Amino acid sequence: MAVTLEQVLDKIATTLITNGVVDPTTIRDNQKTIRNGIIQVARDNSEKLLLFEKDKKANEEDLASMSLTGTELTSLSAIVNACSESGATINNIEINSTSQTGSESDYTTVYLYCFLAGVDINITPLIQSAGNPFNVSQFMNLIQSGSVVNPDQAHEFLDTNIFELLPGGKTRQQRINDFFAEWNFLRGGEPSFEDTDGDGFIADDFDSVGYSDSHDISATQDPDSEAEILEEESFITRLDDDAYGDNSGKTIESLRNQLNEYLKDIDEDPTLAFEDIRPTYKNVSDGYLKFRQLNQGIIIRSTQDEFIEGLNPSTQEYLTTGFTITMWVRFLDKVSSGTLFNFGNPTRTNSPMGFKLETLIESEERFLKLTVRESNTTRTSTFPTTVTTEPINTQVPVDLSEWYFIVATFNTGVNEDGSEAAQTNPDYWRNNIDSSGNYVAQSYLGNKCKVEIISRSDLLRARGYKV
């Protein structure tokens, strides 16, 4: 990492102290205090010492530009920038200070030398001039003091036989309590994860850098970051990639990874431990009749009687007995509609009669509909317009690889004309809710025509087979 101005200022101050060119008086004469509401230099022992968080703030006077003999660099900032551009680090910079005889105001000379940049400059005019305190204002005087104790008098007045026990350390439970109290404080606020673009992922919508700059202690310590908080107001770093300096291995991510090692038993997927022992269904019939084109079909008739039993168009016994049509169907596309089964034509203009089971396409969805001509009335499996919670016909899921078992029923025992026209529950029209609003197997209320479906997969699962 390139050398910074803060590092250079710190090294200048340390050099002045360790080289012995200053004494306690020099330090006090250059310390800052607030007097009469103004920051002033040189304080006495009765005044409070003013300390700054950064050396750049404590030595603002050093940053002014002035003419330096023998160089084009006119400020300390320019000198540091030249060192940084050469790729130097703080270890490539040497600072020397020597005491000088002569006037009291010129008691030391300071040289800065950058090995990589080849810069060797007397920086004394920059850090020591009229109105510019020397770079030792951040240090404090420590005066050694002591007192002589007379052992005989101490034994006379002091009880040296002490029998009290020192208080014990914290219990293990107290230490655990303290740990979680610190964790709850130092983890900081949780990130706000939202799927703003609705693609099912949050990683591409979350500003990880922005969260780090307003949360992580690593961001406050990294001079290349744009931290938005002070170090003492920051929290544990979230990601390992954002860890800086002493925070390596001390992140929320690294803690999560350690915890995973203690929780492998509860992280296991229990479904992987069970073997599916259900049998696989095998088709029993020898085959089935397959229609390859939409215009193909089959006509069913009796070879011994004029009509199939119950399907005499003159007597129409099915309007008294009712009927049930069942068939297996697999739909090959999403757009084809047509008749699956019919007897006569219940919707024709001239002398309508009979019934038909058809498939419809509405709003790119597939539906099934049973229509029966009963006397002068046309009965259908369509729900009344009062039903708004579900499609008005029986809907077929869109799965072109699935077989569906269709059951179409005309139940003459249902009192459709006596049903409540204002009912909005589709289960009422499926004959499953009675007049009291209770669910029942057959209420005989609702539509006389009803169409139900079940997929082959669901049917086999219900029968205990593996699909």
Describe this structure in words.
Helix content is 22%, strand content 18%. The chain has 467 residues and is α+β, with helices and mostly antiparallel strands. The chain folds into 3 domains: 5-127, no CATH class; 175-267, no CATH class; 318-462, no CATH class. Strands 7, 8, 9, 10 and 11 form a 5-stranded antiparallel beta sheet that branches. Strand 4 (108-114) and strand 5 (119-122) form a beta hairpin. The longest helix is centred in the middle third of the chain and has 15 residues, at 172-186.
**Number of helical regions:** 14
Helix content: 10-25%
Total beta strands: 13
Percentage of residues in strands = 15-25%
Q: Report the principal-axis shape.
A: elongated
| Poorly predicted ranges | none
Distance between the termini: 62 Å
Strand and helix order: HHEEHHEEEHHHHHHHHEEEEEEEHEH
Class by SSE composition: alpha+beta
Domains, number: 3
Q: Mean pLDDT score, rounded?
A: 85
Measured on Cα atoms, how large is the radius of gyration? Answer: 46 Å
Please give the largest β-sheet.
Answer: 5 strands, antiparallel
Key terms for this structure?
five-stranded antiparallel β-sheet, 467 residues, alpha+beta
